[in-house]
Automatic annotation (TrEMBL):
<feature type="binding site">
    <location>
        <position position="67"/>
    </location>
    <ligand>
        <name>Fe cation</name>
    </ligand>
</feature>
<dbReference type="Pfam" id="PF02678">
    <property type="entry name" value="Pirin"/>
</dbReference>
<feature type="binding site">
    <location>
        <position position="109"/>
    </location>
    <ligand>
        <name>Fe cation</name>
    </ligand>
</feature>
<feature type="domain" description="Pirin C-terminal">
    <location>
        <begin position="183"/>
        <end position="287"/>
    </location>
</feature>
<dbReference type="InterPro" id="IPR008778">
    <property type="entry name" value="Pirin_C_dom"/>
</dbReference>
<feature type="domain" description="Pirin N-terminal">
    <location>
        <begin position="27"/>
        <end position="127"/>
    </location>
</feature>
<keyword id="KW-0479">Metal-binding</keyword>
<dbReference type="InterPro" id="IPR014710">
    <property type="entry name" value="RmlC-like_jellyroll"/>
</dbReference>
<dbReference type="InterPro" id="IPR011051">
    <property type="entry name" value="RmlC_Cupin_sf"/>
</dbReference>
<keyword id="KW-0408">Iron</keyword>
<feature type="binding site">
    <location>
        <position position="111"/>
    </location>
    <ligand>
        <name>Fe cation</name>
    </ligand>
</feature>
<protein>
    <submittedName>
        <fullName>Pirin</fullName>
    </submittedName>
</protein>
<dbReference type="Pfam" id="PF05726">
    <property type="entry name" value="Pirin_C"/>
</dbReference>
<comment type="similarity">
    <text>Belongs to the pirin family.</text>
</comment>
<dbReference type="InterPro" id="IPR012093">
    <property type="entry name" value="Pirin"/>
</dbReference>
<dbReference type="InterPro" id="IPR003829">
    <property type="entry name" value="Pirin_N_dom"/>
</dbReference>
<dbReference type="GO" id="GO:0046872">
    <property type="term" value="F:metal ion binding"/>
</dbReference>
């Protein structure tokens, strides 16, 4: 069965606005997930969107800082991001590339952004690790744009697949217990497609250009650029139809861990005691 004829069983649970924020050395961004209106979509801990044509808004970047207990996925729609960490990981992604970092038991890294053709535009996603993997060895990899799987599942629809599967295509991201599905989907005006979210996964759709109708039939909800549509958990795909000017979407889903979450700044563990240990270990230079 082709993707375009799969049953479309899911709907949008709610739509949420992002919140202006600053991070790193004063980098201005919009926090879409991990904010008062939308804290966590288990196992998705955070989503930041950065878009600016003003270097002063981001040029100081994200100087060395620690993480433990989760993963970061950085997707640069346009622009560059330079990574360096204390475990020997180093890389530069450019226009359409991805950085995947598993903090595991502890890592300290820096991320320095640069624009291309006058614009810096990208996303950073935080994905939780299961309790029994939080202290795994840190890991890092660049995934250049030309390694993303290109899919054309229906007329007027094109996909850049980062993680998970779409039909016979598979994204280049590493396999993880949360089985993430991450795709950049472009829809022409009125073009329909069924987003193949894995059964039982929790997730969201964020239009970053244009407007999209999400959900089955007459119950579809119009979601404009810059808002997060939280998808109800369940089975089946989610119908998406491009609006009057088409749409471009970040689509993310992952398997819920259903475990306690204890957060403190750059550390995400399962208990308060583990958080205190993370702070102590970092201060003692054990990362």
């Amino acid at each position: 069965m082709s993707t375009s004829t799969m049953p479309s069983g899911r709907s949008v649970a709610r739509v949420v606005d992002g919140m202006p924020a600053q991070d790193g050395a004063g980098v201005k961004l919009t926090r879409m997930i991990g904010q008062p209106k939308l804290d966590v979509i288990d196992p998705i801990l955070m989503l930041d969107r950065i878009r600016s044509d003003d270097p002063k808004a981001y040029i100081a970047g994200f100087p060395p800082h620690p993480h433990r207990g989760f993963e970061t996925v950085t997707y640069m729609v346009q622009g560059r991001m330079r990574h360096r960490d204390n475990h020997g990981g180093e890389g530069l992604i450019v226009d359409g590339g991805v950085q995947w970092m598993t903090a595991g038991r502890g890592i300290e890294h820096s991320e320095m952004p640069e624009q291309t053709d006058g614009l810096l535009f990208g996303f950073q996603l935080w994905l939780n690790l299961p309790a029994d993997e939080k202290m795994r060895e840190p890991w890092y990899a660049d995934i250049p744009a030309d390694r993303l799987a290109a899919v054309e599942p229906a007329p007027g629809v094109s996909v850049k697949l980062i993680a998970g599967t779409w039909g016979e295509a598979a994204g280049p991201a590493p396999e993880r217990a949360t089985r993430p599905f991450i795709a950049d989907v472009t829809l022409e005006e009125n073009a329909p497609v069924d987003l193949p979210l894995p059964d039982g996964h929790a997730g969201f759709v964020l239009p970053f250009s244009g407007t999209v109708a999400l959900g089955p039939g007459e119950s579809a909800e119009m979601v404009p650029e810059g808002r997060v549509a939280v998808v109800e958990e369940g089975e089946g795909s989610l119908r998406a139809v491009g609006g009057p000017d088409g749409a471009r979407l970040l689509v993310v889903a992952a398997k819920p861990l259903k475990e306690p979450i204890a957060k403190y700044g750059p550390f995400v563990m399962t208990t308060r005691e583990q958080l205190m240990q993370a702070v102590e270990d970092y201060r003692a230079g054990r990362f």
